Amino acid sequence: MTNAFDLAGKTAVVTGANTGLGQAIAVALAQAGSAIVAVGRSGMDETERLCRDAGARFHSVKADLSSLEPIEQIVAESVAAGERIDILVNNAGIIRRADAISFTEKDWDDVMNVNLKTTFFLTQAIARRMIEDGRGGKIINIASLLSFQGGIRIPSYTASKSGLAGLTRLLACEWAAKGINVNAIAPGYFVTNNTEALRDDQKRSSEILARIPVGRWGNPADLGGAAVFLASSASDYVHGVVLPVDGGWLAR
Ligand code: NAP
């Protein structure tokens, strides 16, 4: 029986792969056999070592995703590294915390630019390639519980992640017939830089933990299975879902 989760011969572009969830996803895809193109503004040495240890080919592209400027270079370098792009994981994202009543335009724009605007136009550029070469592909957006819920003190983050869930559904509707699966993963509360401020706040941290049915925060490696599933032929008939990986948070 063939392994529907096998990614041998595939090339995956993963944004924000130097740390946290992006790094764990890159490593999981590498372990499933994919070559990795890691895109980000910081050094990728640790991710490179982990992916190569898994036996994967690895290439990194230095790019600041706060503007659209690096998109052409990302696509060109990724294609050069892998001949074609089979998988795109839009993971890079930022968060700014402040009360909505005093939230600044800069904190709005900075978050929307990375989490939504660049994500859309990078996806568009890579989908054009996937459509041109006629073999389709897999696009995975990293959404959030804030794609379903309001949260507090993170207005631009909630708007961006709710927008990303909508965009996931729209792109799935437009591109499913072209052989591209567009889906999203909504991680719950994971131990990464993104949640450091929350974990440092004893009260918020224990309130969050008390609501997670499995009784612990997520470790980045907990996302690997969902990422491999959505990147592989095992999910060929799955389009436009936002898959929670949240220890049961949304079930409560
Ligand atoms: P993280 O450790 O802060 O990672 C964020 C990644 O995005 C880093 O690689 C970061 O690069 C990259 N990034 C940010 N701005 C960038 C820019 N302008 N150009 C290029 N790369 C940029 O946090 P994380 O938790 O792993 O977050 C990964 C994704 O998961 C984000 O989209 C986040 O919203 C989402 N998420 C996280 C959680 C959670 O509980 N942790 C829950 C739901 C969703 P640098 O290291 O160079 O800044």
TrEMBL record:
A molecular function GO annotation: 2-dehydro-3-deoxy-D-gluconate 5-dehydrogenase activity
PROSITE patterns xref list: ADH_SHORT
EC code(s) of this entry: 1.1.1.127
KW Oxidoreductase (keyword) present: yes
Keywords, alphabetical: Oxidoreductase
Top EC category: oxidoreductase
One Pfam family, short name: adh_short_C2
Source superkingdom: Bacteria
SUPFAM superfamilies: NAD(P)-binding Rossmann-fold domains (SSF51735)
Family: Belongs to the short-chain dehydrogenases/reductases (SDR) family.
NCBIfam families in the record: kduD
UniProt protein name: 2-dehydro-3-deoxy-D-gluconate 5-dehydrogenase KduD
Gene this chain is encoded by: kduD
